[in-house]
Each structure stands twice: as C-alpha cells, then as structure tokens.
Amino acid sequence: MIIAIYRFRERVDKETIRVLLSFPVLITILILSQQIYPTIILSGTAVTTAILIIYLYFQRREQMTDDLTHLFNRRTFVQDIQKYIAEGVNFYVVHLNIIDFKTINDRFGEKNGDQILRGVANYLKSINVLFKVYRTGGDDFAVICRNLNEAKVQIFANEIYHRFEKPWTNNLLPSTVLVGIAVLNYPNHVKAWEDMIELIEYCSQQANQQSGSRIYYADETSNEVIVKKRLITKLIKVAIEENLFYVVYQPIYEVSSKRFKQCEALLRLEDPQHGIVYPNDFIAIAEETGLIFELTKIVVEKVCRFIDEADQAGVELESVAINLSSTQLSQESLIEDILEIMLHHRVNPNRIVFEITEAAFISNSGRTLNFMKQLNHFGVKFSLDDFGTGFSNLSTMMGLPFNTIKIDKSMLGNAIKSEKNSKILEGICHAFSEVGFNIVVEGVEDSLGHEITQRTTATHIQGFYFAKPMRSPQLLNLLSLKDLNLP
Ligand code: C2E
Ligand code: MG
Ligand code: MG
After folding, report:
1. How would DSSP label each residue in 181-197?
2. Can you give the C-alpha Rg of the chain in angstroms?
3. Going by C-beta distance under 8 Å and a sequence separation of 6 or more, which residues neighbour residue 250?
4. Mapping DSSP to helix (H, G, I), strand (E, B) and coil, where does residue 135 land?
5. pLDDT of residue 16
6. Does the structure show a pLDDT above 60 at 363?
7. 317-348: per-residue pLDDT in tens?
8. I need a labelling partner for 152 at 20 to 30 A (CA). Which of 10, 56, 458, 471 fits?
9. Which residues have CB atoms below 5 A from the ion given as ligand 3?
10. Ligand 1 binding pocket includes 359 (Cβ within 6 Å)
11. Rounded to the nearest whole angstrom, what is the distance from the C-alpha of residue 208 to the centroid of ligand 1?
12. Of all protein residues, whose CA lies closest to atom 41 belonging to ligand 1?
C-alpha cells in the first residue's frame, strides 16, 4: 500500500494520503495489541474501524466537494470563511462569475457548458497549490488566498482575467466566455462572515457591470453599501407593517386642453427616524429583495382609493400612472392582485396606466408581452418610461402594446444644450406621433425647457415647471380649480 501511495502521490490529494497512511498505523497497533492480549481476537474490530474511517471520510468528502469539477463546494467555502474570520487570518477572496453562462448552455448544450466549467476549475487549481479553490455556484468560482499582499493579488486577478481571453476547450465551439472578477480582503473590507457573503455578491455585480476590465476591487466604502442596503430593507419592512408609505402625485399637463387630466403616482417612505426616503434609495433594494411586489400592491391600492375620491369629489381625472418594476413583469399572480384591487374599489382598469422603464425589455420580451396583453385585455394602458436612457430595440418595443412614450428628462437636458440635440428630440417625437403614440416629455423645469418641448409634437408635459409631486388633497384642490392659468 505504501508503495502504491508513493507511486500515485501526484494524483492523490494530501487528505486521502493521510487517511490511507493511517491504515499501516492501525495494523501496527493491532499486531502489538494481539501480542499483549493473545486471548482477545481483535481483527474484526480493526476491519470495522477501517471501513468506518473510509466511509466517514468519503461521505465527508462528498459533502464538501462539487460533483462536476471536484472543487470544494459553496458549503465548504462558507465554513472556511467562518473559520478564517474566527481565527483572525488575513485572506483575500478572488471571486469569479462567468457572465451569461446560461446562454452558453442554451446555445451549445449543457455537455459543452460542463466542459468549460471543468476547464476553468482545472486552470484555477493549477495556478497555486497553496490557494483553496471552490465552485460556489453554477457559474461562480472562488479562490481563497492567504499570505498574499495587495500587489500580488492584483497580479493574480489579472492573470486569471487574461486567461479568460483564450478558449477553454479544444473543440470547434467558440468556448471563450466573459468573466467578472471581484477581489475582497478580510479584515480590510468586512468584519463578519455574513457581510463577506453579501459583499461578494455586491462586488460581483459591480464587476459584471463594468465596461473594459471587469475586475472589481472592494474598498473601505463597499461595506457601507451593504450596511445601507440592510438598513433600507429593514425600513421597507417596518414601513409595510406600520403603513409608513404614502403616494405623491405629479400632475401631467395636456397640451391640447391646457389642463391637468392625468398624474403620476410616486412612492415615498416616511420613517420617523430617517425622515422621507425617496424611491431612488429604496426601489432597487425592494426589487432585489422581492419586497417590490408588496409595494406595488400598496401603490395600486392607494391610487384606486384616490381615483375613487376624485370621482366622489366630481373632479376630472382621466387616469393615474403607476410605475412598475421590470422584475415584476413575470409575476402572473400580480395581474390577479391588481385586478382584484381595482374591482374592490370599483375603479375601471382604463383609469390606470402602468409605466415600464425602457431597460425592462432587454432580457424578456416574451414574458413582458404576455403580462401586458393580459392587463391590456381589461383596459389597463401602458407607457414606456424613461425613453432615451436604455438600449431598447425599437422593433421589440413596437411589438408591445404601449400607447404612450415618456421621453426622459436627460433627452430634454441634451436638447437644451445644443440645437442639434433639440432637432433630434423633435424628430423622435415626430416619428412616434406618426405611428399614433401619445408623448409625454418629462423633467421640464423652466421656460426654456417648455419652449423646446412646444416645438415638438409632445401631447403631454410633466415637470417642476408645471407642478411638483404633491399629496392627494392638494392635487384634488388643484384639479378642482376652474382657471389654472397655465402657460
Ligand atoms: P420616473 O418614473 O421617471 O419619475 C419621475 C421622477 O422625476 C420623479 O422622481 C419625479 O419627482 C422627478 N421629476 C419630475 N419632474 C421633474 C423635473 O422637472 N425635474 C427633475 N429633476 N425631476 C423631476 P421620484 O419621485 O424621486 O422617482 C424616481 C423614480 O423612482 C421614478 O422615476 C420611478 O422610476 C421610480 N418610482 C417612483 N415611484 C415608484 C413606484 O411606486 N414603483 C416603482 N417601481 N418605481 C417607482
Ligand atoms: Mg415613471
Ligand atoms: Mg421617467
């Protein structure tokens, strides 16, 4: 056995060698014991012990490793991080995420996808035997490096990054894949292991979103983002429980009638300790945590109640626009919830317009179309929000049942800066008008912005120049005024 271990030592890992080497020791103890106590037969006990050692070892090993790559798995990764932090060891985590790996699997088949993953795993294992390598998710890998300084870890991360420029398999498929690399250190960037796991996720997202080199080095401020995210998540949960959300309404000016007939519902959170929290600070977190579904229902509920109030007060309110996050467009049950709330408040669905931001369509137009069609069937209308900020594919967009396009304030901002951009704005509005869309120009703040907007075919204008978002009683007041004296 010793000869076999010696011959194959390169192919067998150290822990297995240690387990195998324990057998000669066990046999020696057995022989010695047998000499001392010749009347007791110990061979059966020894065999059982040996089998038990082998069984427990391989069972533990299975639990610790990933079947496909034979790297350590996520569970071991978390345990190791906990252990190193408890011991106060200084270490770096170099985390790799293969970007859009699902597409590779879909296009070339899982077998080829697996080959790439194995290729990456073997490469990572081969870099430095002192580093521990893990597969922490379907397309995620991590390397824990101890005893490395910042300069060396940068060289290491760069080396891995550049390796990804080359293919991973030698078949004919284009087997290069994109990678995002996040580099974090304990104790510089985090103090607790839970923070480390969250920070890895955050840094990995940042890495993937970077243009150019997708290597993201955590810094002292990275953890603040995690802390803030946790705080906001808590504020949202408390605000849902204690009814601390409220909606403000920004009137939308109709050019033809020179009146406000529509408005946009904008959500606010009023926390007793932190004051008013704005959507830019909590919507993205609500999306990530799934709490957005609850928020949408809150907004729809409040808006339906407001429409009912407006009707009771006899003021003219054509429709209210509600922002819908892209993450919600695949949630079929939301459709039922929305319709149920409308029914409960006896609000005709044609009084609601859902605004969806341009970026929402990039990934999932099939589902988006389905979601929109179902609500559209009941009379709900849709508006494309923030046009000019995303990367919408015009032909995809035209296939969706929108009846309004909202031109983002950044486009107006550009139009104010140059005559050329102003002409572009006019041209875009003209093209959309030609095919029958309503057009809202957003973010009109002053008379210059208004003047430029008037040169376009915009049917509606929204902005601080006309009115800021306000609470429902103020809007009811405003809508009930006979003479608004608007420009
Ligand atoms: P949005 O849908 O594009 O809403 C317009 C934002 O621009 C609002 O900010 C509004 O107050 C602001 N705004 C309006 N006129 C002007 C102007 O003349 N100048 C400037 N600088 N800004 C103006 P707010 O309320 O902070 O909302 C920000 C974003 O948060 C919204 O952008 C929307 O995407 C999101 N949001 C707001 N409420 C909700 C909600 O209930 N659900 C979801 N999913 N998103 C929401
Ligand atoms: Mg909007
Ligand atoms: Mg907008």
Report:
1. EEEEEETTT-SSHHHHH
2. 31
3. 263, 264, 266, 462, 467, 468, 469, 470
4. strand
5. 66
6. no
7. 999 999 999 888 888 899 999 999 999 999 99
8. 10
9. 385-386
10. no
11. 26
12. 267
